[in-house]
Amino acid sequence: MLSILIPTYNYNITPLVGELHKQAISLNIIFEILVMEDGSTLFVEENQEIGKLEHCKHIILTENIGRSAIRNKLADSAKHQFLLFADCDAEVQNVNFIANYLPFCEDDAVIIGGTAYDPNNHDPAYSLRLKYGRAREANTDYIKGQKGYENFTTFNFLIDKKVFDKVRFDVKITGYGHEDTLFGHALHEQGYSFQRINNPLIHKGLDDNESFLRKTIESVKNLYLLYISGKYPFLAEESKLLRTFIKLKQFKLVRLMSLKLKLSKPILERNLKSEHPSLFYYDIYKLAWICYFYVHADKLSD
């Protein structure tokens, strides 16, 4: 019936698997839990304890194959019809987490459970990640106001294996970010839609402000590379960042925005690393970086 699939990289997965296993056993359902290490060098020995649990398997890949390829590999290894993907840095907050998914285990199901953030976490070192997560990723009102495909998230979702096999993750993506956007679009192209339910996992493995900004730059660069490759023309419409960038190009303001990054980067980053970061500044920061990569194409290979 249910294959719970967890791609893992340098993370202690035993608490998450222990809770998911306990819930599945109590429901008396047919299930398996597959944990696949994507070239991990940390916590591998601890995670091997997972293999001792009934219906659980711990698989070690010695080389990192990437976020898209490992999810495809997990789906290929699964033996049940419904695939429940969860990221390794998740924490179960609801004792009925698995039970809440069971009514949706129907043919062609694609269900997003959602993401939540620890309400007691106010660590200023993670202020930007927490504010962004709470205001954007965990805010259903914000999500409803965005275009649907770009808001697909791989953090916690259920999918019929037959649907997954038709769509799959695009392994041609080598940079950081946007595999979920392309997956959401591929679902649409195949005639499938996805449904959101209130069944979140807590996102625990947060990046501190410095790391989150670094990953933001990597993600913006990867989005721009995908766009200029010409292989994903739909991104121009489905990415809010790209739509804004294209408007700036039409008004010949891209070079000005790139220059603004050079002049205001210290001010923006000081705010974004502060205890009370501005998401408006964060959006400006991303827009300035995509303009920078347009103007300085030689930096795309760095």
Give the uncertain stretches in residue-range form: none
Give the termini distance in whole angstroms: 46 Å
CATH architecture classification of the largest domain: Alpha-Beta Complex
| Overall geometry | globular
The main β sheet shows up as: 7 strands, mixed
Describe the structure.
This protein has 302 residues and is of the alpha/beta class. The chain has 2 domains: 2-114 and 153-206, Spore Coat Polysaccharide Biosynthesis Protein SpsA, Chain A (Alpha-Beta Complex); 210-301, no CATH class. Helix content is 46%, strand content 15%. The protein contains 13 helices and 10 strands. It has helices at residues 14-27, 44-47, 67-77, 97-101, 127-137, 140-144, 161-167, 179-189, 209-228, 235-238, 240-250, 254-272, 279-295; strands at 2-8, 31-38, 56-61, 82-86, 90-92, 110-112, 115-116, 156-160, 195-196, 201-203. It has a 7-stranded mixed β-sheet with strand order 3-2-1-4-8-6-9, sandwiched between helices. A 3-stranded mixed β-sheet has the order 5-10-7. Helix 9 packs across helix 13 (279-295), helix 11 (240-250) crosses helix 13 and helix 12 crosses helix 13. It is globular.
